[in-house]
From TrEMBL:
The lineage of its organism: Bacteria, Pseudomonadati, Bacteroidota, Cytophagia, Cytophagales. Residues 189-487 form the ABC-type uncharacterised transport system domain. This is Gliding motility-associated ABC transporter substrate-binding protein GldG. Residues 33-143 form the DUF7088 domain. InterPro entries: ABC_transp_unknown (IPR019196), DUF7088 (IPR055396), Motility-assoc_ABC-rel_GldG (IPR019863).
Length: 550
């Protein structure tokens, strides 16, 4: 009796000790190969530093096909991990917008979510030969006080298979949620400058990007011609079409040399419409060539023709007395669906470009790391400016043998310690000499060789801008905005939150044909084996009891 009592007291003491250790020393162990249940250190820091309550209302809940159930599970797992590190400041609610007392009430719920920034998705599924359709909202609303941010969870490259898109969305849950929380929790907003004084593009055609950036950053336009760009966290040069003066180039040079972050959206060739038959391309000199060369890149004065391209509406003839308008592949509008391995471009949709030029890497500066971000397909051809770009090009069937130019760089990231272009050129009696930096802190530069990448179309019938990256022909929105916003995040994110985009989850797909063929067999195994194991266990237990007690 005393021996049993001692064992009982020892067990209680051991359990109490384990409980005390667990409450004192916090740790979590993720044993999965791809660390799917872990979040980045930057996300943990963000959550640990929360000083206000944040509520996340998730609308991806209910009965879904298997792929969406996986995305729902990933969202729940990620948010539970978030909640663990939030010191009680994070609250999570789940609701199914399809549940309503009446169809009218359901439609009101749908419209409310659309007005708040969420996009619905139609889900089709075949279950036992029966086709079903359901509207879902794969998103969430993150709210703090009176401010709210919509989070679209269904993301990814639309050229991928549905399974791959869902997996890409799964990989992006942490970054999407953490970015929304950071936007609401951070009292200080980063400062982003836009150089628009060198472009003739109307503000309406830059409005979608400007509005998106303003949601996350304080925006400054260069209308007042500042003495320097110091104090800005990032600088965007927006499709310039006139040359920069030496003084303006000096300010760009000193900003980057001093550790600044700059993104250039520039053209290598100017394309002007000359007639209904086509356009004329001529070299565009922005007086930035020597600056880019010093940094280690060169934007060429050419145009890329790519077999992976967008379409334009073209009059290919007449049917009776009416013109026949058809969408035709326009190889001067490459679709960039080839990306460098970097968190900026991971899992984004293809990027829509118009009259793209190529970028070469030059120089041997060991202090500068060069990472291609945007790349063409391997089936390319280049046309050197000046050149006539005729619309008849779209009517002709291309010869694949003529498109062997290989992969071309269209966007490149330069990182490191930059040396000033004006080194040994600024004299001591120059007023700029006192603040001159020949070499400074580590900076970052992204150069994209298409200014139209950040230009949105405009719907003149509705008098409203169209989304950035929207293609009128296919009615599809490409990944232009995601690319620019990710690039800005990377440039201004001192804590490295964008590293959460690097998470990679392997798809371990099942063989659907074998599943269909062996469906009955595996259903029988799942049903009978547990019953058999219970029967064997019960039989053994009965046998040993009879043997022990006779």
């Amino acid at each position: 009796m005393k021996k049993n009592l001692f064992r009982f007291v020892l067990l209680v003491g051991l359990l109490a000790g384990i409980n005390w250790l667990a409450s004192t020393f916090f740790f979590r162990l993720d044993l999965t190969e791809d660390k799917r249940y872990s979040i980045s250190d930057a996300s943990k820091q963000l959550l640990n530093e929360l000083d206000k309550d944040i509520t996340i209302n998730v609308y991806l809940t209910g009965e879904f096909p298997a792929g969406f159930e996986r995305l729902e599970s990933a969202t729940r797992e990620t948010l539970e991990e978030f909640k663990t590190y939030s010191n009680g400041h994070l609250f999570i609610n789940y609701s199914d917008p399809t549940e309503a007392t009446s169809e009218e009430q359901r439609q009101k719920q749908y419209l409310n979510l659309v007005d708040r920034g969420l996009t619905p998705t139609n889900v089709f599924a075949n279950e036992n030969g029966k086709r079903t359709e359901k509207i879902i909202f794969p998103g969430a609303i993150v709210q703090a006080d009176t401010l709210s941010v919509p989070v679209q969870l269904l993301k990814g490259n639309k050229a991928s298979t549905p399974e791959e898109q869902l997996n890409q969305s799964y990989e992006g849950v942490e970054f999407q949620m953490a970015s929304a929380i950071r936007l609401l929790a951070s009292p200080q907003r980063k400062k982003v400058g836009f150089i628009v004084s060198h472009t003739k593009i109307s503000p309406a055609r830059l409005s979608d990007l400007l509005a998106s950036v303003q949601q996350h950053y304080d925006v400054f336009l260069d209308m007042n011609n500042p003495e320097s760009y110091d104090g800005l966290d990032a600088l965007l040069v927006m499709k310039p079409d006139s040359a920069f003066s030496e003084d303006e180039k000096f300010k760009l040079d000193q900003y980057v040399t001093g550790g600044g972050k700059a993104i250039f959206f520039v053209d290598g060739a100017r394309v002007d419409s000359v007639s209904l038959e086509g356009n004329y391309a001529q070299p565009l000199d922005l007086n930035l060539n020597d600056l880019f060369f010093r940094w280690g890149a060169r934007v060429n004065t050419n145009l890329v023709k790519d077999l992976n391209c967008a379409e334009i509406l073209l009059n290919i003839g007449n049917v009776g007395d009416k013109p026949e308008i058809r969408p035709m592949p326009w190889r001067f509008f490459p679709l960039l669906n080839n990306f460098g391995r970097h968190s900026v471009t991971r899992n984004i949709n293809a990027v829509y470009t118009r009259f793209l030029s190529t970028i070469d890497t030059v120089g041997g500066n060991a202090n500068i790391k060069k990472t291609p971000l945007l790349l063409t397909s391997a089936y390319t051809q280049t046309v050197n400016a000046p050149a006539l770009v005729g619309y008849n090009e779209a009517r002709r069937q291309p010869e694949p043998s003529q498109y062997k130019g290989g992969v071309k760089i269209a966007g490149i990231l330069l990182e490191g310690t930059f040396t000033s272009l004006f080194q040994n050129r600024i004299l001591t009696d120059d007023p700029r000499f006192k603040k001159f930096r020949s070499q400074g802190s580590a900076g970052k530069v992204i150069i994209c060789s298409d200014g139209d990448l950040i230009v949105n179309d405009f719907d003149y019938k509705r008098n409203a801008p169209l989304p950035l990256g929207y293609d009128r022909v296919t009615k599809q929105t490409y990944g232009n905005k995601d690319f620019v916003m990710n690039a800005l995040d990377f440039m201004t994110d001192a804590n490295g939150l964008i590293t959460a985009r690097s998470k990679e989850i392997q798809i371990r797909a099942l063989d659907k044909i074998r599943i269909q063929e062996n469906r009955k067999f595996w259903q029988s195994i799942n049903l009978l084996v547990p019953l058999l194991l219970i029967g064997v266990f019960g039989g053994l237990r009965y046998f040993f009891r009879i043997r022990k007690f006779g």
